[in-house]
Design goal:
Elements (H helix, E strand, L loop, with lengths): L1 E4 L2 E4 L1 H6 L7 E5 L8 H12 L2 E4 L13 H7 L3 E5 L16 E4 L2 E2 L4 H7 L7 E6 L7 H10 L3 E3 L19 H4 L7 E5 L4 H10 L3 E5 L4 E3 L1 H24 L2 E7 L7 H13 L3 E7 L4 H5 L6 E4 L4 H5 L8 E2 L1 H7 L16
Parallel strand pairs: 3-4, 3-5, 5-6, 8-9, 8-10, 10-11, 13-14, 13-15, 15-16
Antiparallel strand pairs: 1-2, 2-7, 11-12
Helix pairs in contact: 7-8, 8-12
Length: 345
C-alpha cells in the first residue's frame, strides 16, 4: 500500500509489519527537510492508523547516518525508530541497538521522462553513467530505457558498503560514480541542486549534466564547470586563511554514521606538528552558534558530514574546512589534487 504526502509517496508495507501489534507504544520519527512541512500529517496518520504515540525528532535529519544515540532511545523509552526518506547504509551497524530501526524510503512522484528527454542533446559521448538520489531510484529503469532508445549505452555503478542500491549517490559518497568512471563518457545526474553534481565532477573529472525533475530544467556541463571554478576559488581562499591561522578547531561529529574519530585525531596531530594550536571539539550538531562559542579559534575543520564545510560555508563567521583542505594548508596534500571530502566504507 502507498501513502502520499505532497509530491512524495511511501510504501507502507514495512510499517504495517512493524506496527501490526496495535498496543500503545512510543515511536520516534525522523523526517528529512523536504518532508518536515508534512509533520502533522505524518504524525496523525501514524497515530490513527497504528495506535502509537509519536515523538518527532526535532533535529534535522540529513541521512541514514543520522540515527539517534542509544542513550536517547533509553531516555525516551522508544519501541521503534522510523526514519523516512533514506535507504539503510549496509555498513552502519544498527544491531547493537535495543530496538529496531526502520528506514522507509520516500519516493518522488514527479515524472522524470520529460526532463531526461530534454537532457539528451546535452550529453557528451555515447556511454552514460546514470546516478541519482534515493527519491528517484525507482525511476532508473525508465531513465535507462529512454536513453537506450536514443542510442546511448547506460552504465549503473555499484557503490561501497555505505550505498544501498546501484546508481544511488550520497552527498558524502560518490563510489557508485568512481566505480564506473573509466567506462563512461559522461554522467547524467537526476536530481536537484549543485552539491551532488559538483562532487561528482570533482571525483571523476567526467562531464556531468543535471536533469532536475523539480524544475523540469537541464543544466549543461559547461554551467557546472563554471560553478566548479567559483567553488574552487572560495575553497582556495579558505585554505589560504588556514595557513595563517594560529588556532584550529577540529570538529568531531557524534552522529553514529558521521563519526570519524581516528581521522579527527590524525588531523589534530598534523596541525600540532606545524606549530599551531589545535582543539578537538565533539558535537551532535555543527552550526554557526557552535562557532560563536569559541572566539579564540581562527579556523575549523569538520570531520563530520562532508556537506557542512561546503553547503553551509556562508552561514559560518569563520572559515570551516574539509580534512583534505586542512592537509593542503599544512602542506601534506596538493591543491591540484583537490576533491570533495567523502565518508567511504
Amino acid at each position: 500500500m502507498k501513502k502520499k504526502f505532497g509530491s512524495y509517496f511511501i510504501n507502507t508495507d514495512d510499517i504495517d509489519s512493524s506496527l501490526q501489534n496495535k498496543q500503545e507504544k512510543r515511536v520516534f520519527v525522523q523526517l528529512p527537510e523536504g518532508l518536515q512541512q508534512y509533520t502533522m500529517e505524518v504524525k496523525q496518520w501514524l497515530e490513527e492508523t497504528y495506535s502509537v504515540m509519536v515523538i518527532m525528532d526535532a533535529n534535522a535529519t540529513f541521512g541514514a547516518c543520522d540515527i539517534p544515540s542509544a542513550s536517547v532511545i533509553n531516555q525516551l523509552e522508544i519501541a521503534l525508530i522510523i526514519q523516512f526518506g533514506h535507504l539503510p547504509m549496509p555498513s552502519l551497524n544498527t544491531r547493537n541497538y535495543s530496538i529496531p530501526i526502520l528506514f522507509v524510503n520516500v519516493q518522488s512522484s514527479l515524472p522524470v521522462s520529460s526532463v531526461v528527454s530534454k537532457s539528451i542533446s546535452s550529453l557528451p559521448g555515447t556511454t552514460i553513467g546514470v546516478v541519482t538520489t534515493a527519491q528517484h531510484l525507482h525511476e532508473l529503469n525508465k531513465i535507462q530505457s529512454l536513453l537506450e532508445q536514443n542510442g546511448y549505452t547506460v552504465v549503473l555503478g555499484e557503490g561501497d558498503n555505505r550505498i544501498g542500491m546501484p546508481g544511488q549517490m550520497l552527498g558524502c559518497n560518490f563510489s557508485v560514480a568512481t566505480s564506473i568512471a573509466d567506462e563512461i563518457d559522461s554522467f547524467l545526474f537526476v536530481g536537484s541542486g549543485f552539491f551532488h553534481s559538483l562532487g561528482l565532477l570533482l571525483a571523476t573529472s567526467k562531464p556531468v549534466v543535471i536533469a532536475d525533475p523539480y524544475s523540469n530544467q537541464v543544466i549543461d556541463h559547461t554551467v557546472l564547470q563554471e560553478r566548479k571554478q567559483q567553488l574552487l576559488r572560495q575553497r582556495y581562499g579558505a585554505i589560504a586563511f588556514a595557513k595563517q591561522a594560529k588556532t584550529v578547531g577540529v570538529l568531531i561529529g557524534l552522529k553514529p554514521g558521521q563519526q570519524r574519530m581516528k581521522y579527527a585525531i590524525d588531523i589534530h596531530q598534523l596541525v600540532k606538528k606545524t606549530g599551531k594550536q589545535s582543539l578537538l571539539l565533539a558535537s551532535d550538531e555543527i552550526h554557526s552558534s557552535l562557532i560563536d562559542r569559541f572566539p579564540f579559534i581562527d579556523v575549523f575543520v569538520s570531520t563530520a558530514c562532508p556537506r557542512i564545510a561546503i553547503d553551509d560555508y556562508t552561514t559560518f563567521k569563520k572559515p570551516i574546512l574539509t580534512p583534505f583542505e586542512i592537509e593542503v594548508a599544512m602542506g601534506t596534500k596538493h591543491w591540484d589534487d583537490y576533491t570533495f571530502d567523502e565518508i567511504c566504507e
